[in-house]
């Protein structure tokens, strides 16, 4: 079997991947390779890899993986790096550069789970009123997220041609993001990329409520090629729109929250008003109902009390 350096194979691997994956996916691969894998394994041969080596590297990432030397990476980032490493080695096996072997890598359990933050009802009402009094395409886009659960990248990519006014539907077909890619020579570049959503379930149709429709109709530029957020044929990138949202909250004396809080609020309110999880999951574009259940279905203590009290009827 041919002996090949890991660094040589990685360059071939990236070149192959570039032809078959989205720009954002390729940029993620390239960044992981340049920032983490080549510095750590660049001088090794493919045959030097073993399960114990990769397992130790996974733990090393959790403890000391940050590029600035200030500690470890989070669980998700560490797992992403190991997934790319394993994919590179798996493809080397397919190319007959490495003996076929399975690497079973274990990560320590993660017990802490961040709580979903939603808008308090009074703040939600204040936000809605502030938007209605200061209606522009950008402020209307804030309301759009609050009443449809669209992600910020989906909103920034949304055009008026995606809005079916006759049937009062939004067709989510694209997402917008700024992609930063680090080249193998160490230089980096970034660009705005509008592409299909990452998963099949993210391509979906979302109804427009009777409350929302007449409001967004007021900011319709009557140009099907115009982006919703800008009202023109020039898009607004995610970080610019996020800054607008933060400044909007500040100007109207509201507590600063993350834009994604609007999506969380939409989903939580839907569940509170009795919508079934399957429907909410499809509106959100989640890949599974379990994701929706884990994020948004958290019975309050009174609901739990009613549940256990039902057993009293047995006696």
Strand numbers in spatial order across the main sheet: 1-2-5
Q: What sort of overall outline do the alpha carbons produce when their principal axes are compared? A: globular
Instruction: Write the H/E string, N to C.
Output: HHHHHHHEEEEEHHHHHH
Helix-strand makeup class: mainly alpha
- Low-pLDDT segments, ≥5 res: none
The overall average pLDDT, rounded, is 92
Largest sheet: 3 strands, antiparallel
Query: In DSSP terms, counting alpha (H) and pi (I) runs of 4 or more, how many helices?
Result: 13
Strand content: 5-15%
Q: Could you tell me the radius of gyration in angstroms?
A: 24 Å
Terminal CA distance reads 74 Å
Total number of β-strand segments? 5
The helicity comes to 40-55%
SSE blueprint and pairings:
Elements lengths: L5 H13 L4 H19 L9 H14 L10 H20 L26 H13 L3 H12 L3 H6 L5 E2 L4 E4 L2 E8 L5 E8 L8 E4 L5 H5 L20 H14 L8 H13 L4 H8 L4 H8 L4 H9 L6
Antiparallel strand pairs: 1-2, 2-5, 3-4
Plain-language structure description:
A three-stranded antiparallel β-sheet has the order 1-2-5, with no helix packed on it. Strands 3-4 form a two-stranded antiparallel ribbon. A hairpin with a 4-residue loop joins β1 (163-164) and β2 (169-172). It has helices at 6-18, 23-41, 51-64, 75-94, 121-133, 137-148, 152-157, 213-217, 238-251, 260-272, 277-284, 289-296, 301-309, and strands at residues 163-164, 169-172, 175-182, 188-195, 204-207. The chain is mainly α and 315 residues long. α1 packs antiparallel against α2 (23-41). The model has no long low-confidence stretch (mean pLDDT 92). The relative contact order is 0.11. The longest helix is centred in the N-terminal third of the chain and has 20 residues, at 75-94.
């Amino acid at each position: 079997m041919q002996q090949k350096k890991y660094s040589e194979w990685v360059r071939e691997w990236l070149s192959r991947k570039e032809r078959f994956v989205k720009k954002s996916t390729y940029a993620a691969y390239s960044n992981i390779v340049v920032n983490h894998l080549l510095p750590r394994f660049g001088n090794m041969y493919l045959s030097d890899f073993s399960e114990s080596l990769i397992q130790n590297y996974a733990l090393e990432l959790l403890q000391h993986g940050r590029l600035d030397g200030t500690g470890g990476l989070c669980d998700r980032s560490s797992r992403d790096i190991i997934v790319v490493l394993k994919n590179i080695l798996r493809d080397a096996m397919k190319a007959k550069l490495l003996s076929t072997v399975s690497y079973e890598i274990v990560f320590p359990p993660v017990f802490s789970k961040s709580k979903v933050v939603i808008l308090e009802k009074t703040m939600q009402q204040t936000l809605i009123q502030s938007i209605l009094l200061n209606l522009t395409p950008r402020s209307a886009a804030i309301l759009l997220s609050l009443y449809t659960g669209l992600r910020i990248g989906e909103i920034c990519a949304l055009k008026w041609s995606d809005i079916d006014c006759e049937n009062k539907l939004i067709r989510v077909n694209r997402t917008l993001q700024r992609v930063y890619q680090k080249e193998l020579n160490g230089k980096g570049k970034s660009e705005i990329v509008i592409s299909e959503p990452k998963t099949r379930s993210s391509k979906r149709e979302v109804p427009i409520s009777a409350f929302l429709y007449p409001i967004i109709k007021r900011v319709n530029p009557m140009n099907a090629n115009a982006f919703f957020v800008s009202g023109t044929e020039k898009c607004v990138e995610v970080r610019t729109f996020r800054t607008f949202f933060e400044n909007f909250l500040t100007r109207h004396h509201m507590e600063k929250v993350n834009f994604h809080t609007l999506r969380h609020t939409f989903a939580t309110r839907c569940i509170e008003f009795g919508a079934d999880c399957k429907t909410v999951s499809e509106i959100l574009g989640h890949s599974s109902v379990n994701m929706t259940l884990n994020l948004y279905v958290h019975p309050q203590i009174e609901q739990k009390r009613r549940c256990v009290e039902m057993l009293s009827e047995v006696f």
